[in-house]
Structures are given as structure tokens and as C-alpha cells.
Design brief:
By secondary structure, the chain is α+β, with helices and mostly antiparallel strands. It contains 10 helices and 13 strands.
Length: about 325
Amino acid sequence: MADVFFRTFRNFDPPELVRLWNASYLGRGVAAPISCDIFDTAALAHTYFDPEGLIVAEKEGGLLGFVHVGFCVNAEHTALDHTKAVICAIVVDPQSRGRQVGRQLLQEAENYARSKGATELFAGPSLERDPFYTGIYGGSKASGFLESHESLHPFLKASGFSEYEKHGVFQKNLQTSRDPINFRLINIRRKMEVNMTDQPHYVDWWWMVRMGRYDYLQFELCPKNGSEPVAGVSVIGLDFYIPTWNERAVGLLDLYVDEAQRRKGYAQALLIEVGRRLKNEMVTLTEVHVPLDKKDVVKLVEGAGFTQIDSGIVYHKALNTAAPADELQ
């Protein structure tokens, strides 16, 4: 790699970054092809974007790969937590693989994270660790690096990362699936109605900087007598995936049920009714992500007609506060 050098982002890089993304970042959960405008929306336009965190490998004026490091949000959702960094993407041109480009990019990423005060490094964006690439990686929700993105997993394990958590990706084909029918669901439909709004239930800084640019709807299951909602779910459009999936798809996010109303079938009823409404709007596919250790939620979404089609893994690595001596030489 004597003729390859590594540097931080420059303003003329986006066309090459997009070329690498479209040609090299392959997998079911990757939106491609994308344009420079889409890449800008998902990464560069964020208020906290740091050019030093997007590191490229360059040779003779062309880019061989890049890695993008961001930071998790703090507990109050008011600012970044620089003690916890996350590798949001690492992309290497297929023709440059096997030449240690990816490994060197990863080392540069660790050095950058450490220089900003990080003591932990995650690999794969996930809940509260997803500063970039919402809407173009992972599908409906950031859930780590997807297992269908096969090349990343052995690479990260060989680089000292360990599995931290695992999520299931579930989809439902609205054109072919049949909704379950039982007396409890029929009774819920008699007593409840689904209301829709384009205003999220609760908005904070973290939500706005990541989700504020995307089409968004909120569905709530409410008693017909006007009482407070018993359950709700958010819907985000996944139009950037149309070229990849050949489907008009939406993602379901932030499913909740009032604590006093749980285990009464409300969440399942809401998912089924939302699917019916979306089908009437010519949506053909819905997707939801669930942590696989939450067995009751997995059972719930499967009972609503969803099937697991992929999984995502979040990786973790502890960082020393100072680089080892051999890295400084």
C-alpha cells in the first residue's frame, strides 16, 4: 500500500463516495443506487457532521474506500456523547480487497474515535448509536451491520470486535399475507379505532436531526369512547429502497403499548390494521426490527404475519485512552 494514503473528507469527495457505495456496499439492506443528494441527506447534511470522522483511502486521485465514524447520543438526547463512538459505514472497492485497505481504515477510525475522547467503539449503527445513514442502510431501523452484508462480519471479528447485541429484521408482504382472525381481534375492532397524524408523539433534538427529513406518520389505537390511546406505532417511508427491493415499502418504528393495557392483543391488532390501511395506499411491504432477546415482541410480530428475513449484529470494542506506542511510530 505504499502508493495509498489516508486523509479526511474534502468537499469534492461525494461523487467518489457515492460511486463506492453503489458499487461496493452490497447487501439486501443497502439502498442502491443512490445519488449525491441522497448521500448528503443521510450523512453530510447533519449538523454534527465532522469531516475528520469520514476517512478515505486514496490512490492516484481515486478513492479505494472510506470509513465513517460518528458518536452516540447522550442520555438526555440533547447532544453527542463523545465517550461512545460508532462505525456507521466501512466501504472498500472490491478490486482493493485483500490489500489491507479495510484494516488500515479501521485503524484510522479507532485513532479518530480515541482522539475525541471515546473509550468505547461500536460497529454497526443501532438504537441511540445511529448518527448517520438513516434511510439508506439497515431498512426501517438501524440494527447493526446486517448478516446479509456478509463480508463485514468475519472482518470485524478478526479485528478484535465482539458481538454486543442482535436484532431480527421482519417483513410482511401486504399483497400475499393473510391476517389472523380470532374473537379477541374482532372484539378489539368493535371497541377501538385507529387514528393517524403526521405529528410524532414526542420530539427531541436527536429525533429531529435524524428523522426530521423523512416522510413520517403516527398511528394510534384509541377507544371509540374518546379515551387515551392504548397503543401506537410510527411509520417511515422507505422510498430509497425501491431500486433494491422493487417494492413500495415502509418501516414500522417505536411500537408501544400503555403499560396497563399490555397482553390484551392491542399491539397485534394495531399492526394488522395499519397494514390494511397501508395496503389501500398501494404499499406492498412493511418491515419492523426487534431485538432477538425480546421473545415476547418477536412472538407478537410473528403473530401479526411478519417473517424474519435477516438479522443485524452490533459489535463492540473497548478503546485505550491513548494509542499503543507502535501506532505512534
